[in-house]
Write a sequence for this structure.
């Protein structure tokens, strides 16, 4: 069963986020008290390009299985270290299509908007980590493994141990792309 492993937030634009007992998702806004919450973009590189762009990166989700892979490769990386708000387990986040809705716990619902595009901040955190979060599939296409981004459709409290249910979008699936 897919579960929420851990939840994180940070009021500052720090790379890593802090573990919390729970976080509150606010519809159309993001994680209450998190620096990346808002109607318009909050990630510094995106603000520099267009501060009025819609925020498609309100909530960052990352699969706990990536931490296992990175630890096996020699990196000391744990939930929250890569800046995610929600660490999941038992769900192939990267394999879900754009528009997939995830119910987190009893009320909160997020909709996947795209992939997190790993940036140089990852290498500043630990040298070589960026390349460890990238791979190639059997067709030679780049695979970005640093999680998925989403918007909040319905607010609510999310805590570690909460179940996750998946609602796939209608129609032909559209592959997640970087946002």
């Amino acid at each position: 069963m897919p579960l929420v492993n851990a939840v994180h937030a940070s009021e500052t634009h720090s790379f890593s986020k802090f573990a919390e007992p729970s976080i509150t998702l606010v519809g159309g806004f993001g994680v209450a008290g998190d620096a990346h919450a808002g109607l318009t973009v909050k990630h510094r590189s995106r603000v520099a390009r267009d501060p009025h762009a819609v925020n498609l990166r309100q909530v960052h989700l990352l699969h706990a299985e990536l931490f296992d892979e990175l630890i096996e490769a020699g990196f000391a990386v744990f939930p929250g270290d890569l800046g995610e708000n929600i660490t999941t387990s038992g769900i192939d986040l990267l394999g879900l299509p754009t528009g997939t809705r995830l119910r987190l716990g009893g009320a909160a619902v997020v909709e996947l908007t795209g992939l997190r595009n790993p940036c140089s901040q990852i290498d500043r955190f630990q040298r070589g980590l960026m390349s460890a979060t990238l791979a190639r599939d059997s067709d030679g296409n780049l695979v970005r493994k640093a999680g998925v981004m989403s918007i909040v459709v319905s607010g609510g409290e999310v805590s570690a141990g909460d179940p996750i249910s998946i609602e796939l979008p209608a129609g032909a699936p559209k592959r997640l792309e970087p946002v």
Q: What stands out?
A: The chain has one domain: 3-167. Helices lie at 44-49, 64-72, 121-125, 129-132.
